[in-house]
Write a structure and sequence with these properties.
Elements: E1 2-3, E2 7-9, E3 12-20, E4 26-34, E5 41-46, H1 54-69
Antiparallel strand pairs: 1-3, 2-3, 3-4, 4-5
């Protein structure tokens, strides 16, 4: 797994990551964090979609993480 650069969005931090599969394609995941110190919470989302490049997987994860922190 390759950890990508985290993006602060208000009180949240969105951290996309990519993982290369055995077939050479890439999967995406994202961690959405909030809080500080002992009160920090992390939500991890893993996606089943396969991507040809790590950049495509990263952009998908970043987009999905951003959507998770948007107000309803």
């Amino acid at each position: 797994m390759i950890q990508e650069i985290s993006v602060p969005l208000g009180k949240f931090v969105v951290s996309p990551a990519t993982h290369q599969t055995e077939s050479g394609t890439f999967r995406a995941s994202v961690t959405v964090s909030s809080g500080h110190g002992m009160a920090t919470r992390h939500r991890v989302y893993r996606f089943d979609t396969l991507f040809a490049t790590p950049e495509a997987a990263r952009m998908y994860a970043l987009t999905q993480g951003t959507l998770q922190v948007q107000p309803a």
